[in-house]
Request: fold
Amino acid sequence: MHHNKIFCNAPFTNVRIENRADRSVIFKPCCVYHAQNPIPTLDDFLNGSEMQALRHNKLSETVSSSGCDNCSVPESMGLTSIRKQLLNQPWASADKKTYTLEIFFGNTCNLGCAMCSAELSSYAAEERYQAGIMPIRPLVADNIQVALDTMDQLPDLKSVTFIGGEFFLAKRNVEILDKIIQRNIQCVITTNATVLTEPLLHKLEQIQDLQIGISADGTEDVYNFMRYPADWHTLNRNIDTLKKRMPWADYCVRAVAQPLNIQNFHELFEWANKKMLPVYYQVLVTPEHLTWKILTPEEKHNLAKLLKTKQSAEYKITSKQKNTIEDFINGIVQDNYDAQLRTQGVEYLAKLFAHRKISTDSMLKHFGIFTDLANEVITAMKA
Reply:
């Protein structure tokens, strides 16, 4: 079936269960689409006016819906997107049959990644409340029962994906795994792999079609900085445990490309290759105050120069990975600098890093060539 250049199968074959800030449940495509209005039930997703309009947009128009900016923006820069990744799935079609279900099962998480929404991580929520970034603590979310009920309403379901908080910390995930085992369908997990629990490992050993995506945005100290308060050595040990327990599973690394880790991407690719783990990346588009928009033209120029220099070094990475770096070099410079967003980003990072008591030396080290940005954050921390 022929589709136009903006076609995306997400609103046709995929559905995600998520939460709003007030913890009410919503249904949406399993992508980064911004719904214009809440979609509170599965029926609203399947038959409601907004999804009908979105499906028409994907089939019949040439300009993406405004809710699709998180894919259209990186694509305009020549970078990959979730839309393009979904087109590679075996059920990429306009069938309007729900083949995949993504479950935001709750916000229980043990990490406070700077770019992560506090609504998606209980650790981040508490930390940002303590740091004075958020006035109130977000409520705890638990969508397990909604997920279980939804699975029973989807007879064509071929795959279930766990997307967060942290898979190994949600006790009732065992119940969803039981349904997956009973129906013999695919299971896809995104995990930070910092904590492994025996009950969930035991269930995973019973699933033959298993994919495990491991969140990692850098190596060594960069990883520790990005995935605070995770430990690099623990991650490596747990990856080895997963591969030993479930050697038949498909494993990969899922990274978020952003200003605070882009200088380490060569090392990330090289480490993943040694672990025999393909790397899939998503360009950070929200929150905007941590995106490429906070970098000045000079900083982008210096970044491009650094990445080009590293391209000629002896990193053991593939041609495709080198092309990815080239895409970053070409794409980053196209994003317009926004001084207001930079100010917001500096204020946010200053509060967060002051709460974590990160030293000046550590700041300068992790910001690398972005010395001016680091000094602005350091100054704001002392204010």
